[in-house]
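Newbie here. two chains, one complex. Structure please?
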Amino acid sequence: QSVLTQPPSVSGAPGQRVTISCTGSSSNIGAGYDVHWYQQLPGTAPKVLIYGNNNRPSGVPDRFSGSKSGTSASLAITGLQADDEADYYCQSYDSSLSVYVFGTGTKVTVL
Amino acid sequence: QITLEESGPTLVKPTQTLTLTCTFSGFSLTTSGEGVGWIRQPPGKSLEWLAVIYWADDKGYWPSLRSRLTITKDTSRNQVVLTMTNMDPVDTATYYCAHRHCSGGSCQLFFDHWGQGALVTVSS
């Protein structure tokens, strides 16, 4: 069902920077709809990490940042920490289907 | 403070109808812009958006599931109900309800508050 494509996994050592891509199409990200990112820790509900492409809710560290260009978006995590190990999902809206769409999800592993 | 909580059966048999209730607080579905969505997650898999209902009773469904889904709201009880007919083992998942972001009259197309999720297993 996923309309947005993400790499299955990324990994990095503590302190390093990792990025997660989110590729969509001309009917969602490319149509100008914002991209939002969620973090899902094991056994818990997703939590908003980035909204509106590059905005952080209060309480989210500035180690997390988002960007969007064309039909893609990216989430960057700098200063990787052990408790960043989680699944990350991008989300947007698709005008051709009039539906909310999620990415395939990326598991971040801290080496 | 916005909270949402899902409730419903943990086990349903194939072909049965699933009814899930989302009880929320901290906002009202009579307020312009507000909306509640349902998202599910099969074990070990990605998030799948299912349906949304807005304050004006507009509704949206994932196209391939549209014939099986119905979303309704009870504003007096602050509840949203999702029914899914003809359940199949592939529908086994954790079902989440979530609040569509709407703050100070500004609404965006994402979900800012989620329930803890309800695991539904479909098995005979």
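Moderator note: Strands of chain A lie at 9-12, 18-23, 36-40, 47-50, 64-69, 72-77, 86-94, 99-102, 106-110. DSSP finds no helices and nine strands in chain A. Thread marked as resolved.
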